[in-house]
Amino acid sequence: MKPNYLFNENNEFVIENYDKAKTFASFLPGIAGIDGIPMWAFYVNRGQVMGSFGVKDRDGTIMEFFPAHTMYQNIERKGFRTFIKHKGRIHEIFSSVSADKYARSLVIEKNRVRVVEENHTLGLRITVAYFTMPGESYAAMVRKVTVESLDGQDREIEILDGLPQLLPVGATNATYQEMSNLMKSWYEVYNAENRIAYYKVRASTADTVEVSEFEEGNFYLSFSTESNGLLPAIYDIDLVFGYNTALSRPDGWDCSIEELTLRKQIAQNKVSGGFTALRTVAGKKPFTLWSVIGHISGIHRANALKKDFCPEFILRKEREATELVEALVADTYTKTAVGMFDKYIDQCYLDNILRGGYPLIFGAGEKSHVYHVYSRKHGDLEREYNFFSLEPSLYSQGNGNFRDVCQNRRNDVLIKPQVGDFNVRHFMNLIQADGYNPLSVKGCTFTLKKEDWGELETLLETHRREVYRLVTGKFTPGRLIGFIVENGTTLNISKEAFLERVLEKSVQNFEAEFGEGYWSDHWTYNMDLVETYLAIYPDKRESFLFDDKGYCFYKSPAFVLPRADKYVAADGKVRQYGAVMAEKSGQGSQEACWLRTKQGRGEIYYTNLFVKLLSLALVKFVSLDPEGMGIEIEAGKPGWNDALNGLSGLFGSSLCETAELIRAIDFIIKSSEKYTKKVCLPEEIGGLLRTAEDLLTRNLSRELSDFEYWDLAATAREKYRDGIRNGISGQELVFSTGEVLEIFGKFRRKLQRGLEKALSYGAGIYPTYFTYNAAKYEIAEGRKNPVNGHSNVIISKFECRPLPLFLEGPARIMKTMEDKEAALELYNSIRSSEIFDSGLDMYKTSVSLEDSSPEIGRLRAFTPGWLEREAIFLHMEYKYLYAVLQAGLYEQFFNDARTMLVPFMKPEVYGRSTLENSSFIASSANPDEAVHGRGFVARMSGSTAEMLSMWFLMMAGRDIFTFEEGELSFELKPVLPDWMFDGQGKVSFRFLGNISVNYINPLKKNTYGEDCVRPAKYVLYYKDGSTRETAGKTITGRLAGDIRDGRIAGLDVSLQ
């Protein structure tokens, strides 16, 4: 029985004989709606597939969490089990050791997964489906088991179905796995008499003086199409398995169902499970058993649910779960001749939401607030190294790493224009004056101004004092609505309207934490946010840059040490270790997390976006390496490629950040050319700018060598950082945009020289990373690194050693290239290099690293073709493909897309749904040929952001809105090949999240290249029912504004 991969009539991914197929792990999205509590749920293609689920994080696990490879081994015993007794013989359904004749399949949907066994020995079809409960104030997993006859004949059967272990609240996954024998001393099951088994520990398990009790608990209940109420729960698994501790057979089931359910159960001092036993007749009419396993705040609330649980309720919830995610992905509706591509875009958008969040807009105009829901720090069975977190609340939001959240919000404003400049303000405010940023981006909170409470108080009939305390502190929409729901607060308006009124009067707080270090690349994603905002609002560029003085500088409780402290001798080698040191004082309140005047004792310093961009670019510019090529990796953490964790110690630098610095500087130059403005800089930043200009002038004139310039510039950077460590003076230096233009023009020339030098090292392909060897140095007597105690050294000469070629550098540089021929030359060089995997027609992260030092990082120790070492990292390959598309290399892009975009891959090779991304694909460099082309680590990566950027450029084009001579213009510039148009020459997509665009291409030609078609006529369908028709490729003035401002429902675009 070989596996077979296919898509059914609903374009759902199906694996026939899934339990014989390549193993993979995935997950349900964990979205319960703004009015629901989410549950995380991970599944694999073995057993009955649902592998682990719970609330919040691994400490809230209900079904034990294992890493993927262990889950594959354990799921058949420790996962869900279904036993059917017919004519005295017990059959285990979905068992790999079953002697029955059967056919099995796995069907994957966006928010539901199901498995089917057609058991020909029994003559039955058994279908098990899973989805998470939407729209309720508790979190739950719903399991639906349907049994029907294959031949229409009635069969009397007994069913024993459930889960052999169900962990109580208060038992963390780690303590259970390490000390389960001890932990069970606290365990107890309550409330079974009400047919809702309730699992919790009797008291806290920590060995501390403070002992607490738990009200919240996990629960198990079940009912069927025939039960007319809830069924009794079997929680004592000894009744099921008896002395068979291997759980291989239900040896305890040696009697009738009726007798089994009457046997005495022990509720204490055991690891309990949750089973349901019943008798039924399986015939033409399907029989269904539902089990609901969840988490709730108290037994009284669990018992209040009894009246809800019936077939009608749960079928409605099943529909809601499907409709919920379909409503979300409607924002990126796509219809081409390639149905798999269309569904793939849906899935990319959904998975992008899971990392970046889905923006809700509260209010309108200047009083509006943007609030992202459904995001979480990613982690799953294949990413067991990440301690994921999914906030168990209404309006659920989550924490994430700066890079992950920032890049996955890149396309927000392209899909939801109402987001405006929110993401720019959020992430630019988190940039520090030293050029770094906190690692952890937490969900936003709000604080109501106390003076505005009066008019809101009148909207409450009860709980006024409690709500006042809640909203005048830091609150979230979920906490406020949750309080109202939990406490039955009476309002004289709807709770949603009350929330809107409160938020209208509240201040939004950006919350973050330093985390564990400073990565060198995080700042680079901010320019994406700036550019996408201006792609929609080019007419607001001036006010966007100069008028909004609501920008400030985050301040982390850690600082980068100067070279005198971090250049050390360690084990006979000269290295850069112990680069970051924590401040002695704690981080304190949120107010203390922002840069203040009077050396930290004054007010928070506010400025505009132009100053923030200028200061960031300046600090990065004075962080160039000794050869003026890459930006130094000088703060202990690498860039995007986390597995190059040793580069900082090797005095590493990265050309990736240089490419992004060029983008930022080019933007500053163009803005300085366009506007005549005063630029008020904090005197510390202004002083560094003057010093950098003076040193650079001397370097460009050859008065200073590159090394001398580097040494003096680094010294100026260190002096600047020391001067702002506690705060700034508050005094400002005034520059004109003309002065900025002149200075940044010099910066640009220095960077161009560095690029040319780098290209000579790479022989036609830009190197991505450089390391430096200390060729001359001396021990600094009496000085030791304050972090690790190593003796300090003074280095007087470096030797540059580029690493082997990586894809990341060219991917970032290509998108800055305005010369199409130069971009094509670079493209051809990469495709001719070892970066290109000719066996798979894909791009690897790098060429062979076999000759590289193990000190560069853990990727050197990885197997070639695996993880970051010479594998196809989908995010980086997609980043490169997006750069190829941006460079105008359309033929090359679509040629690559046919083998490199996931929906065009062969699922039998990829090994999982080709609607879902994976983190990496094992390349031909891997010694195990069986894994070549196979995807690993499911879905949540930056690849979704890159794909959505490609999708938008393909469907709409670049510079769709322009603003010249005071007039807004709109022009669609799709980049679509002829094979994407259907038989009627039509492609449709959802534009700006709410406009249905139909391209009509009767000639079925490409929209690019020679002999192509372009927009020649637009028909605008207004939401009020009126229509307007306009000829030509461009729409100007009021009509362009109508499109952007959401007055249009549809656009028909004739291509000629």
From TrEMBL:
InterPro entries in alphabetical order: 6-hairpin_glycosidase_sf (IPR008928)
GO-annotated biological processes: carbohydrate metabolic process
This protein's name: Cellobiose phosphorylase
Natural source organism: Ruminiclostridium hungatei (Clostridium hungatei)
